[in-house]
Amino acid sequence: MKFTRSEFRRIVPIARRRIGNAIVAWVQRLFANRRLSRDVFGSGSERRALICYLPEAFDGPLPKSHSNFTECYAAAKAFHRLGYSVDCASRENDRVDYTPYEVVYGITSLSYARSFSASGHEPLRIFYSVGAHTFLNFKVTADRNLDFFREHGTRALASCHYVPGNGMNYYNARLSDAVICLGDNSVAEYFRGEDPRPEHYYSLPAFYFDVRRPSPEKNFDRCRRNLLWFGSSGLIHKGLDIAIDFALRHPEYTLHICGASRGESEFWRYYGPLADKAPNIVQHGFVDIESQEFADVLDSCAILVNPSLSESGAVAVLNVLANGLLFPVYSRATGLALAEYGSEIPEVEYDSFEQAIIAAAALPAEQLLQKTRSLNSHVRENYSLERYEEQLYTHIETILKNNNLR
């Protein structure tokens, strides 16, 4: 492909800007592991709280590419309301001085874990758990990978939800003074069952990003056999294999795949050639939930398929159900209680999902419309960001009172 001189003149400054931005981003990532943002709201209060999470959440507008930025910001807002000056340390910061802080709050991270070995100082520690209990998580993902090997003769270990270091979750939960568990009460109940201090666990339903209002009228006769799988990494853990297997066995259905990390080479070595050749499998890649493409996918699909092994509230599921009219066929392990509105599958296995998808697609159009409208209203009312923030504030306030810090 040849470029004219005028085209080169137009391209060069764009290329320079992009290269410059890439260099700046690389340098920021290089030093972000020891970042500490101080007094993020400028309160100047003598009472200080440390959040071990994402200092980037305070750099500008909160992105909707992941919920974690908003979760970090919401925690800081809660402590600010409670009269604290809030600092935020990056997850890999190993040089934090914990002595100024009354409270340390955070997810599994080096900066949070190091607070337990801070000599001569014992702040109140609140662990924010963003996943299922370690014992449950590792068991179900290992068992499912064994099943996958028996079914397909290959392994895809990188598509489990095993992240090196996640065993730290167990110690954080047991050693902290209180644990806030993202997800419905069933998520927290598993933690309570593994700890002699069940009163230390607090359940916090997840939230969705409000990006659009779906049309109240949807033609389910036109899209009843269009399925959506919406997720990111851990593709076997999140059941993409089950969704693809269904589409391969039922060419009369169309499966739309949004997200699905391409970095999991073992998974795609097996499924890539099959999915690429299947005309009824549409791979969208990463989809911005604020884009028209996201809106078009939601309007063209009737059924959300989510065979996840374990979640803590499944924000991806909530984003779909709050911004579109879709009937969910999902596992109970998502940490959501929506059986009144969809098909809740107790165990993650192919046959159960196959039967539930076919049964859902056979429902009368009027019934599908009525159920998805009711579900959309339920999700928007009970899983809003405002409700999440208020519940988080209440939990933190209660924990501080119970530990004589209020």
What is the topology?
Elements: H1 5-32, E1 36-37, E2 48-53, H2 68-81, E3 85-90, E4 103-106, H3 110-113, E5 124-129, H4 134-152, H5 168-175, E6 178-182, H6 185-193, E7 201-204, H7 220-223, E8 226-231, H8 240-249, E9 254-259, H9 265-277, E10 281-285, H10 292-300, E11 303-306, H11 315-323, E12 327-331, E13 343-345, H12 350-361, H13 365-382, H14 385-402
Parallel strand pairs: 2-3, 2-4, 4-5, 5-6, 6-7, 8-9, 8-11, 9-10, 11-12, 12-13
Antiparallel strand pairs: 1-3
If you had to describe this structure to a student in words, what would you say it looks like?
The structure is a single chain. With 406 residues, this protein is an alpha/beta fold. Among the domains are: 33-122, no CATH class; 220-383, 3-Layer(aba) Sandwich (Rossmann fold). It is 43% helix and 15% strand. The protein is built from 14 helices and 13 strands. It has helices spanning 5-32, 68-81, 110-113, 134-152, 168-175, 185-193, 220-223, 240-249, 265-277, 292-300, 315-323, 350-361, 365-382, 385-402, and strands at residues 36-37, 48-53, 85-90, 103-106, 124-129, 178-182, 201-204, 226-231, 254-259, 281-285, 303-306, 327-331, 343-345. The strands form two sheets. A seven-stranded mixed β-sheet has the order 1-3-2-4-5-6-7, with helices on both faces. The protein has a six-stranded parallel β-sheet with strand order 10-9-8-11-12-13, sandwiched between helices. Helix 2 packs across helix 14 (385-402) and helix 11 packs across helix 13. The longest helix is centred in the first third of the chain and has 28 residues, at 5-32. The protein is globular. The model has no long low-confidence stretch (mean pLDDT 90).
